[in-house]
Design a protein that fits this description.
With about 350 residues, the chain is an alpha+beta fold. It folds into two domains: about 5-290, Beta Polymerase, domain 2, CATH 3.30.460; about 290-355, Methane Monooxygenase Hydroxylase, Chain G, domain 1 (Up-down Bundle). It contains eight helices and seven strands, in the order βββααββββαααααα. A seven-stranded mixed β-sheet has the order 2-1-3-7-6-5-4, sandwiched between helices. Helix 5 (about 190-210) runs antiparallel to helix 6 (about 215-245) and helix 7 runs antiparallel to helix 8 (about 335-355). It starts with about 35 loop residues before the first strand and ends in a 6-residue tail after the last helix. GO terms for molecular function: cobalt ion binding; cobalt ion transmembrane transporter activity; magnesium ion binding; magnesium ion transmembrane transporter activity. Mediates influx of magnesium ions. Alternates between open and closed states. Activated by low cytoplasmic Mg(2+) levels. Inactive when cytoplasmic Mg(2+) levels are high. It catalyses: Mg(2+)(in) = Mg(2+)(out).
């Protein structure tokens, strides 16, 4: 029997690559074969430079030459390159471990001269999944490391930098990290809305009674929404941590925008909860509809059985094979039996009708 949910595509909560009891900061080689690609954007209010980096050592010539340098790494396949970047920015071993083990929940932590932020990017194709985006935010740089993904969630930020849209070219690295996080969170909206559209398409067939294939679809939607909620909820905690007094990396100008990201996260969580409630209501409606249909069938069968009980009794009495029976030789006995049975059946049906058994 085919399961309503394809369990092989449900992502596990975490995928540890180190054995239990390993020393903190132990980083195992990623299983993925996607080679790392580095893209660099360096900018200021009037300056802008965008290039592809082949060697991590090339990053040094941009650091300090521009107001902000954004180094983006796509894929975790080249561990030597990632190790070189970790040494260049003096990353803590725990940070390096979290980068190479992309099962982390969204979080924001401070490590002295830099902040370490983890967000999760959602994608629907080829199946629902989330990918980790790690960010190291320093005074004049942002190092972002993205788990291999088929979709580019950060291209809108690059376009804003190229075309000088908004204030992003005038702001510092903390605002750039906010922009990256905000782009990731904004991409949750079309994904969550797509589940609302799918529920709308199921509403009319469900009301019409075509429920054979709908309930497994509703269950799949509810399960996917739970997966999204589980990955999205920690973002709100991380953002509120970044706005707290103990988190000094972000200025007041950027904190204002973080409040907007927090509001977007709350809106998404509210929408997910509403859609999951709709899934629950649709399942309840299905079960109520199924129960109602069963009751209608039972009522119909009960009426039929009730009508035929006295008719069977009459037929049984007159079907007994005794020689001495009243009316046995009567000329109109057969017609009288039929008349009596039709009268009883008609009377009972009329009584049931008056009682409202045939309504609905």
């Amino acid at each position: 029997m085919k399961l309503p949910i394809d369990l092989q595509f449900l992502r596990r909560p975490f995928e540890r690559r180190t054995p239990p009891g390993s020393a903190p900061g132990t980083a195992a080689k990623p299983e993925e074969e996607v080679a790392s690609r580095m893209h660099l954007v360096a900018f200021g209010p009037e300056d802008f430079q965008e290039t592809v980096i082949e060697n991590a050592a090339e990053v040094r010539e941009y650091l300090g030459s521009y107001d902000v340098t954004w180094i983006h790494v796509h894929g975790l396949g080249n561990t030597a390159q990632l190790r070189q970047l970790a040494d260049m920015f003096d990353l803590h071993p725990l940070v390096y471990e979290d980068i190479l083990h992309p099962h982390q929940r969204a979080k924001a932590e401070e490590y002295g001269d830099y902040a370490f932020i983890v967000v999760r990017m959602v994608e629907l194709e080829p199946h629902l999944d989330t990918r980790q985006l790690s960010m190291v935010v320093g005074d004049n740089f942002v190092l972002s490391i993205e788990e291999a993904s088929s979709q580019d969630r950060l291209e809108p930020v690059r376009e804003r930098l190229r075309k000088r849209v908004g204030r992003i070219r005038q702001m510092n690295s903390d605002y750039l990290s906010y922009a990256l996080m905000d782009s990731v969170i904004d991409h949750y909206f079309p994904v969550v809305e797509s589940f609302g559209d799918r529920l709308d398409t199921l509403d009319d067939p469900l009301a019409a009674g075509y429920t054979n294939d709908i309930i497994p679809q509703i269950q799949k939607i509810s399960s996917d929404l739970l997966t999204i909620r589980r990955n999205l909820l920690p973002h709100r905690e991380a953002i509120r941590n970044m706005m707290g007094a103990r988190f000094t990396r972000y200025t007041d100008n950027t904190t204002v925008f973080l409040r907007d990201a927090d509001d977007h996260t709350s809106q998404l969580l509210d929408a997910i909860d509403a859609y999951r409630q709709i899934c629950s209501d649709m399942r309840d409606f299905h079960f109520a509809l199924t129960s109602q249909r069963a009751n209608e069938v039972t009522k119909t069968l009960t009426i039929i059985a009730t009508v035929f009980i006295p008719l069977s009794f009459i037929a049984g009495v007159y079907g007994m094979n005794f020689n001495d029976m009243p009316g046995l030789k009567w000329e109109w006995g057969y017609e009288f039996a039929w008349l009596m049975m039709i009268s009883i059946a008609g009377g009972m049906l009329a009584w049931f009708y008056n009682r409202g058994w045939f309504k609905g």
